[in-house]
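Quick one, probably user error.
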């Protein structure tokens, strides 16, 4: 049986590119999504077209029961080897002093609590302390964690700083239990997330300030994620890799 990879938010953008690259690398792929069933089905088809076993599962990562059900579904596909904590949201750009508490709670629920729940379930299954055979967790953070996103979404940036710190702590906690935990920090990447922020063309605007003078592509982030997940990164844990064109 092939190793299984779970990619949260695998239906679009960076997550979708990660699913396809994982399929090409020989994993069985579980594609998680929350609303866009057609997009998830399309990603499953792309994975199958390169010979991989793949399935889609709908579930909100911030809902504990849905997360447990997702890991149970992965077990049916084969031995879990990798979790990619990719699902993430942001809200329309605005000043910090205009933000509501509900907005902060919502973005922390998905980006932080969701990542915690998924990482916890992965640790419970992959850690040798729990009888697992080891594996890897890759958290998708953001350059926002060190830029702070002033005037756009300080709330979102703060969630990504939480992910960076969780990566260090969990990585060190599991280091001697066969599980590596790392994060990738994408810079500005050409996906639909910028439309959620109210500016679909943001990637092109921001790219003028990127040393490489262009936005990143989802496939470039996916390649970094798959490297961190692979045995090629066997001595890499509890750290973050910037994939940001030098920004
Ligand atoms: P995207 O194109 O907006 O896709 C978001 C994905 O997350 C979709 O698959 C969506 O599912 C899923 N999702 C949203 N809320 C969810 C929830 N509660 N439970 C499960 N899945 C959920 O986003 P992206 O740009 O690829 O971003 C992916 C990750 O990269 C995020 O963590 C983001 O913060 C990070 N990142 C992105 C950029 C960038 O410039 N794009 C830069 C730095 C970091 P549906 O399709 O069902 O809606």
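Nope, works fine. Designed sequence:
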């Amino acid at each position: 049986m092939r190793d299984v990879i779970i990619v949260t938010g695998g239906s679009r953008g960076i997550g979708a590119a990660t699913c396809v690259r994982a399929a090409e690398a020989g994993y069985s792929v579980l594609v998680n999504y929350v609303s866009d069933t057609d997009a998830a089905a399309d990603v499953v088809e792309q994975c199958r077209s390169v010979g991989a076993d793949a399935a889609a599962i709908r579930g909100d990562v911030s809902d504990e029961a849905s997360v447990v059900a997702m890991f149970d579904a992965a077990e049916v596909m084969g031995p879990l080897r990798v979790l990619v904590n990719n699902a993430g949201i942001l809200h329309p750009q605005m000043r910090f002093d205009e933000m509501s508490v509900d907005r902060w709670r919502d973005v922390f629920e998905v980006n932080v609590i969701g990542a915690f729940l998924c990482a916890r379930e992965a640790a419970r299954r992959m850690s040798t302390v729990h009888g697992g055979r080891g594996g890897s967790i890759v958290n998708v953070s953001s350059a926002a964690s060190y830029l702070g996103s002033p005037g756009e979404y300080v709330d979102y940036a703060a969630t990504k700083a939480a992910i960076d710190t969780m990566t260090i702590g969990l990585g060190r906690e599991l280091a001697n239990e066969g599980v590596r935990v790392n994060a990738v920090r994408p810079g500005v990447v050409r996906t639909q997330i910028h439309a959620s922020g109210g500016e679909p063309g943001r990637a092109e605007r921001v790219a003028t300030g990127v040393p490489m003078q262009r936005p990143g592509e989802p496939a470039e982030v996916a390649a970094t994620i798959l490297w961190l997940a692979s045995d090629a990164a066997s001595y890499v844990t509890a750290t973050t890799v910037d994939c940001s064109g030098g920004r």
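Residues 101-126 form the longest helix (26 residues).
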